[in-house]
Structure to design on (380 residues):
């Protein structure tokens, strides 16, 4: 009986791993940018507001702003909203006033708002550009990033676009033990859960103003950019791109910050319900179980069809992850692949922590409590 159960679990593991491989391959193919050859004259270029929400970002603030103001885009304004930082973030922002960076001082968070949503809403109200580029402080751009994105957006007549950033910060713990946030984003991309990178996304200011009232309609939603993209996908006005040399988007995020983000996002990502959490844990178990079978076979030197099936399941999933790493990491891919079992176990722990903290109303974002429901619904 136990052998039959093992075979059944392994068969499901093979099916799941094959599905993941197909999904990741399809997504990476679909999201490769088709090069735009359109050349815009300065007179016809739209104005762009780079809007950066910041809270206790003293470690990354200077480098972020230095990269933004080095942009070759001619019609640019840069605005930073300091969300009541407790360090010297505000001082660092103000030190760039000579370069035209505008400082917006945040106040108490109004009832019903999430902190980052309120920061983005205030940045929207203060901006004047025809396009708004929302940028996280730990995200890096190159001088030609904004020009490339605007050319791509105007050529394809899109209202919103987002870019999957690359990791190019070397063999650090924050890279080798990185969470699988964007891996899941690519695999589960669909019309109700579109792939969006919150670290950098570009949107028409007119659309935000006329259809969303800024962030008023999505003020307590965990990932507001996903809900906006969901609305625009139905009209074929949203695009998601993989980073390439011409776009030039990368990010550096400390391991602890990645874990905090995962805890904030994982439970809502699986639907914000106990059944969704159980289903996700079951899927992760199906990915981890073949490794257990293989380890037992090696230690006992007992080879069987179970061993072969486990090897097939693992090979398919490792291949899917290797393809993902080949696109998103520039260094340490082999080590990252070897550490995949540990990374999956880490995801299990983070999902359980996310579910527990949402259920006990102890979830936070950068030290600020979040008490809204994790359920994320489209606002029509």
């Amino acid at each position: 009986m136990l052998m039959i159960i093992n075979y059944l679990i392994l068969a499901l593991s093979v099916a799941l791993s094959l599905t993941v491989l197909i999904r990741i391959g399809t997504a990476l193919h679909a999201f490769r940018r088709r090069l735009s050859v359109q050349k815009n004259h300065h007179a016809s270029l739209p104005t762009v507001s780079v809007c950066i929400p910041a809270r206790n970002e003293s470690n990354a603030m200077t480098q972020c702003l230095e990269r933004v103001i080095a942009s070759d885009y001619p019609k640019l304004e840069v605005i930073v909203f300091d969300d009541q930082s407790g360090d010297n973030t505000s001082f660092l922002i103000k030190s760039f006033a000579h370069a035209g960076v505008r400082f917006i001082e945040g106040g108490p968070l109004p009832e019903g708002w999430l902190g980052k949503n309120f920061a983005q809403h205030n940045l929207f109200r203060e901006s004047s550009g025809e396009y708004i580029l929302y940028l996280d402080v730990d995200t890096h751009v190159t001088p030609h990033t904004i020009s490339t994105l605007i050319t791509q957006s105007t050529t394809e007549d899109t209202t919103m676009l987002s870019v999957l950033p690359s990791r190019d910060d070397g063999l650090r713990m924050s890279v080798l033990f990185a969470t699988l946030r964007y891996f899941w984003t690519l695999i589960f991309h669909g019309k109700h859960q579109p792939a969006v990178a919150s670290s950098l996304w570009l949107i028409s200011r007119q659309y935000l103003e006329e259809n969303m009232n800024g962030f008023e309609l999505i003020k307590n939603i965990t990932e507001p950019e996903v809900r906006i993209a969901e609305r625009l996908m139905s009209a074929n006005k949203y695009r998601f791109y993989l980073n390439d040399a011409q776009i030039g988007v990368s990010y550096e995020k400390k391991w602890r910050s990645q874990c905090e983000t995962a805890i904030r996002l994982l439970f809502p990502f699986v639907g914000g319900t106990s059944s969704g959490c159980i289903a996700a844990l079951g899927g992760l178990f199906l990915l981890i179980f073949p490794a257990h079978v293989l380890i037992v076979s090696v230690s006992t030197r007992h080879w069987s069809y179970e061993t072969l099936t486990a090897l097939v399941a693992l090979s398919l999933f490792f291949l899917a992850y290797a393809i993902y790493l080949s696109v998103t990491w520039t260094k340490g891919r082999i080590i990252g692949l070897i550490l995949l079992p540990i990374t999956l176990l880490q995801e299990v722990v983070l999902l359980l922590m996310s579910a527990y903290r949402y259920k006990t109303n102890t979830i936070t974002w950068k030290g600020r409590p979040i008490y809204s429901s994790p359920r994320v619904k489209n606002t029509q």
Summary: The mean pLDDT is 89. The chain has 14 helices and eleven strands. The first strand starts at residue 48 and ends at 54.
